Amino acid sequence: AASVxxxxxxxxxxxxxxxxxxxxxxxxxxxxxxxxxxEPVELWHESADLEGVAAVVLPGGFAYGDYLRAGxxxxxxxxxxxxxxxxxxxGLVLGICNGFQVLAEAGLVPGALLxxxxxxxxxxxxxxxxxxxxxxxxxxxxxxxxxxxPVAHGEGCYYADAATLDALERDGQILFRYVRPDGTPVGxxxxxxxxxxxxxxxxxxxxxxxxxxxxxPHPERAAEALLGSTxxxxxxxxxxxxxxxxxxx
Length: 249
Known about the structure:
Low-confidence stretches: none
Oligomer: single chain
Structural class: alpha/beta
Mean pLDDT: 94
Order of helices and strands: EEEHEEHEHEEEEHEEEH
Strand content: 25-35%
Number of strands: 13
Number of helices: 5
Largest sheet: 9 strands, mixed
Distance between the termini: 19 Å
């Protein structure tokens, strides 16, 4: 057991955080995971060993400098081959911001992340509404309350063709959408509440199996009150709790 800001947690659930050259949120993510009750484990991009972790998080940043296109080089790294195999076996994987871009490039979640509609880097707080509360990534999120957390990206515009978008809606693969501050839906991609012009205001999705998810906003930057919001912590706690159950003998 250990104490994190006066809260006793057992840290028995090991959650890996992938570190690429250019990652810049790995320490924030590790701290958020620790606050959520996990033991964070650093996973280096050149290694295919996931060190027996119960879940994997791909943090934000600029993997390999995001040259060519965000996430496109990282998808070929040895660690991503291991992550893909881990996911194929039902392992829980969460990609945050750049991590979402990497997952999309690797084909582990549907769709693509394009340049922001404004063609500018966006760094500000957004408001999210959850679509489901019965997933490994949302099970501890409070019902019927919008979540506040920051975004920081230049390529966060979620895109998929109409057939894929319809399938995501039908199959319940949309996790979060951007909404207005009062929680009302966003219809127009140019609405200021949609920071990047994502189609159907999509902020987070998961794969068909429900064990891999990508999210553009940063829950680890909204994990304790001194950061201005604790709304991201239930997402991290959901992952840790679900991973602990999966790892239990």
